[in-house]
Amino acid sequence: MKNGLLLVAFVICLISCKKIDQEADPEFSQKQTLMDTITSADKDENGCLDGAGYFWSALNKECIKIYESAITLYPQENQNNEDETKNAYIVFAENGGNEVEVFLPNQVKSIILIRPAEGQPWQFDEWQLVPWKGFMLKKGEEILFSGDGSIGPKVTGSDKIED
C-alpha cells in the first residue's frame, strides 16, 4: 500500500511539473517575441532608434541625436518655435572639412552641402547655408531657417515658477 501511495504521489508530481513547464513556455516565448519586436520596430535601415530621436548621419556615418548634438535652425517666420519637429538641423563633418549635413523637417533623407572655399556658403542645388549671425538656410533667394549657431534647443522661457 505504501509503495502504491508513493507511486501515485510521484506520478502526480511529474504531471504537475510538466503542466507548469507547458504553461510557462508559451508566456516566456510571447514575452521574448514582444521584446524582439520592441527593440527592432523603431530602428531604421541603419540601426538608428527613430523613436528615441536618433537619425543616421550620412556625413559622419553614425547614429546621432540631432535634437541635442546638432545646430538648430528655426523657421524664419517663427524664431521662437519650440516644436522641434518644425526646425532644421545642421551637422558638420567630424573631421572638419567643407561639408555640412542638413536635416529638414518632414524629410527622411538629409542633404549634404559642400563649401567650395573658405568664407563661401555651403551649397547643393538650390540650397545654400550662409554663415551670418549664426547660420541662414536658403532655398534659392528665400531664407527658410536661421539660428544663432548654438548646439541644442534655444531656451525661450524663464526658469521662474509661474503662479
Walk me through what this model shows.
By secondary structure, the chain is an alpha+beta fold. Helix content is 27%, strand content 28%. It has two helices and ten strands. The protein has helices spanning 2-41, 66-69; strands spanning 54-57, 62-65, 71-75, 88-92, 99-103, 111-114, 122-124, 127-130, 135-139, 142-147. The strands form two sheets. The chain has an eight-stranded antiparallel beta sheet with strand order 6-5-4-3-10-9-8-7. A two-stranded antiparallel sheet has the order 1-2.
Unreliable stretches covering 5 or more consecutive residues: 18-23
Number of helices: 2
Rg, Cα atoms, Å: 28 Å
**Strands of the largest sheet, in order across it?**
6-5-4-3-10-9-8-7
Main beta sheet strand tally, sense and closure: 8 strands, antiparallel
Beta-strand portion reads 25-35%
Shape: rod-shaped
Order of H and E elements: HEEHEEEEEEEE
Structural class: alpha+beta
The separation of the N and C termini measures 82 Å
| Rounded mean pLDDT score | 78
Q: How many beta-strand runs? A: 10
Summarize the amount of helix as a percent range. 25-40%
